[in-house]
Amino acid sequence: MDQEAVSEFLGQVPLLQRLPSSSVRKIAELVEVRNYEPGDYVIREGQNGEGVYFIWDGQAEVSGPVYAEEGELHLKKYDYFGHGTDDSAPQVNVTALSKLTCIVLQHGNRHLLQPKSIWNADGTPADFSLVEQILHLEPLEADLFRGITLPDAPIFRQVFGGQLIGQACISSSIQDCGLP
Predict the structure, then answer these.
(1) Are residues 22 and 104 in the same domain?
(2) Residue 179: pLDDT above 50?
(3) C-alpha torsion 5→7→8→9, nearest 10
(4) 96 and 132 both lie in a single domain
(5) Within this chain, do residues 23 and 100 fall inside the same structural domain, yes or no?
(6) Number of H helices, E strands in the chain
(7) pTM score over 0.70
(8) Rounded CA separation 74/82 (Å)
(9) How open is the CA angle 36-42-47, to the nearest 5 degrees?
(10) Residue ranges of the Cyclic nucleotide-binding domain (predicted)?
(11) For residue 163, what pLDDT is reported?
């Protein structure tokens, strides 16, 4: 499969639609294609899968003790599974119902599924996008924050309109979430 087709497909997966297109392209570079015949196990109960599986084509069935009362769960194109941690063995079986093609993002690359922002980025504010720099607030003390104004703003040294509201929302979420 060519990388452009994989990127386009991944852009349609609900889990990935919140990511920027650059992240989706990076994921498309790293995924591997796996093919299964009808009746093949993709993941067996108590065994770890290889990573996060995105169904490209075909159907799969999820069964196991968790679904004993409800019956099986059927998965189709754009559905995904296997997003647990490396050391948590799933208590389900995932079986191919038809010829099944999955795109697999290995466990070691799961971090790419998390969007980077000022709240979870590893860098410094200078590494953030302009919007993130403008919305970034430095907590000084309880209910007191320091932010920046637009770099090309007039010399008023004040914040107006949408920037003020955006920073207010950020300061509120920082306090609500207990973030530093």
Answers:
(1) yes
(2) no
(3) 90
(4) no
(5) yes
(6) 4, 10
(7) no
(8) 14
(9) 155
(10) 15-82
(11) 75
